[in-house]
Amino acid sequence: MTRAELHGISRVLSDPRRFEILTKIAAQDCAACSDLRAKFPITAATLSHHLKELESCGLIEMARRGKFIDITFQRDVWEAYLKQLQKI
Fold it and tell me: Which of 4, 29, 70, 74 gets the highest tally of CB atoms within 10 A of its CB?
């Protein structure tokens, strides 16, 4: 993991709501965007923004299935991030 990737993930996770969203995604094999929307009192646009941030740093992957979006936690990226943090 590069220094830029490490900083990018740290920046994305600094938002408490975003971290909470990631926690909900990580607790499942595959999360539906509609299910996440129901769990958080935020607008669809705000949820979309948070998901794009999480995807941009590689922590989640989003796959479109018709009008639905399936979200998976990228555990390998998370583990690489934790490994880098342990070196501090």
Answer: 74
- The angle that helices 3-13 and 75-86 make with each other, rounded to 10 degrees, is 100
Asked if 6 and 13 touch (Cβ cutoff 8 Å), the reply is: no
The 3-state secondary structure of the chain reads CCHHHHHHHHHHHCCHHHHHHHHHHHCCCCEEHHHHHHHCCCCHHHHHHHHHHHHHCCCEEEEEECCEEEEEECHHHHHHHHHHHHCC
The count of C-alpha atoms lying within 13 angstroms of the C-alpha of 76, restricted to the half-sphere facing its C-beta, is: 1
> Which phi-psi region, left, alpha or beta, contains residue 66 (left: φ > 0; alpha: ψ -120 to 50)?
left
| Band (65; pLDDT cuts 50, 70, 90) | confident
For the entire predicted model, the pTM comes to: 0.91
